[in-house]
Design goal:
about 290 residues; OB fold (Dihydrolipoamide Acetyltransferase, E2P); Ribonucleotide Reductase Protein R1, domain 1; 3 domains; seven-stranded mixed β-sheet; about 30% helix
Length: about 290
């Protein structure tokens, strides 16, 4: 009899599967046909498996939705982009590029401004104005501010953390982990110790959902994008583009551009528009070279 579960850790020949209905984690082998077809399971895969003796055996993998290459995780729902504007003072241009890179994958973005305890009210106010189009959580691992709200955003999701170095991604994960996560356990029935993982693992939230156990790395690469697609990565520009005089306006040198009017009036932050133009230039250069 088969049942279903989620791969929470994957190794060269084994996977740990968390059952969908029971609080049970089982060390599973792979059917030979996976090797023959060169199909490699991924952390996050939703699978059908069968208990065979003291272990499980993965029978099939359900179709995947969104996957990330690094970390290698399937069926991601949310990318939590963690940033700071105080120690380190991350430039808006860097934040914009990371958010745009996440947007390429069509996954939900939760923006987290961390280190609130050392961030001035003026910087917080400015950040809110610039990034108003995004779901944003303001956190501090020192005071605990925003931690419960962040947990709520992760409930029932498969999430990965991303962001520049030094902004506190690991601290946030540790803060959540110390109060609300259960790490994967190999079934006692296997009588085997923990293996060295060759990829990311999922930690299970008590309220439901999973988070990748290590901060993610988002590769910032727009080479395969087209100029018209770049505006899709900036929600405030995308929504304003419908009012432009030309349907194919890319908001650079075209007349009758409503986006440029909003930038001039301050309704679209200049920093966001500048980041847009920089990525647009990068994409155009790449297209010309190809």
């Amino acid at each position: 009899m088969t049942t279903t579960g989620r791969i929470i850790s994957f190794h060269s020949n084994f996977a740990i599967v968390k059952d969908d209905r029971k609080d049970l984690e089982t060390l599973c082998t792979l059917r030979g046909r996976f090797k023959l077809s060169k199909t490699k399971p991924m952390v996050g895969d939703h699978v059908e498996y069968m208990i065979v003796g003291d272990r499980g055996r993965i029978e099939s993998i359900f179709p995947r939705t969104i996957t990330l290459k690094k970390p290698r995780v399937a069926n991601i729902d949310t990318v939590v982009v963690v940033v700071s504007v105080s120690s380190p003072d991350v430039q808006y241009s860097t934040i914009d590029r990371i958010i745009a890179a996440v947007a390429l994958s069509k996954v939900e973005i939760v923006l987290v401004l961390n280190k609130l305890d050392i961030t001035s009210d003026e910087k917080i106010k400015s950040f809110k104005r610039v990034y108003s189009p995004y779901v944003t959580v303001f956190t501090s691992t020192v005071t605990g501010e925003g931690i419960e709200e962040l947990k709520g955003k992760l409930k029932g999701r498969i999430a990965v953390f991303a962001g520049p170095s030094g902004v506190g991604k690991s601290s946030l994960l540790n803060t959540i982990s110390s109060s609300n996560l259960r790490t994967g356990r190999i079934s006692k029935a296997t009588n085997m110790g923990r293996h060295t993982t060759s990829s990311a693992s999922l930690l299970e939230l008590e309220e439901g959902g999973f988070v990748v156990d290590t901060p993610g790395f988002i590769t910032v690469d727009f080479k395969e994008s087209t100029p018209s697609e770049v505006q899709e990565l900036f929600p405030e520009i995308r929504s304003a583009s419908m009012m432009c005089a030309f349907d194919d306006c890319v908001h650079d040198a075209e007349p009758g551009c409503y986006v440029k009017e909003l930038v001039k009036s301050g309704k679209i932050p200049k920093s966001r528009y500048k980041s847009y133009l920089e990525i647009l230039k990068e994409v155009r250069t790449s297209n010309d070279l190809n």
